[in-house]
């Protein structure tokens, strides 16, 4: 196939297990830029946690944050934004604190706010290179994402209870210990459709890469969707095509050897 755009998840996909982009991958992405093929980052991260990678790759391209909740153009201007009401966020927060007594992260545009800091928050800060702000919802009208970091068993129970009690939300695990909450209409696939329409690129001319369950809809939508070999078992079982792991330059391998198959 001849592809005109590449969409890539960040953690576990673009980044290796040391949370770095390999030199081989950087070189490949820069070659795409020379050919005017956009390399679009698609992540659950906030924009501030993604800008660094665009700079490191030395490219100018659109970017999808919050798994589709916030889309920025190649000049990093917001062109799409979808969140849930701050009233809903407060209801969720009250419920989580009452029954589980664990920290809750609020993501509003380019702000990460927390009510308290524990080991999970500290680890997320190290991984993303960002410092959380003190929770302050004054003037906030909508929230792009809530994140809860806790032990796997707690996350499992919380996911079940929130899905039973609240509607209109997308509630899913991005890791065994991470529970993400967004508006139900938000998805990576809808963001890709939005960008393809804007760039006038057919979906059959796109390639995507991902490793986790929140990447599934994206991998199934694009012309070719590649699961990373290090991906979650359910993802590998659902996606017919997969490439090498994130520690083996899986993106480069697929673009060089598999896309044309």
Automatic annotation (TrEMBL):
InterPro entries membership: Cof, HAD-like_sf, HAD-SF_hydro_IIB, HAD_sf
Cellular component terms (Gene Ontology): cytosol
CDD domains on file: HAD_Pase (cd07516)
Pfam families: Hydrolase_3
Keyword Hydrolase in annotation: yes
Annotated keywords: Hydrolase
A GO term for molecular function: magnesium ion binding
Keyword Hydrolase among record annotations: yes
Source organism superkingdom: Bacteria
Protein name, as recorded: Cof-type HAD-IIB family hydrolase
Species per Swiss-Prot/TrEMBL record: Faecalibacillus intestinalis
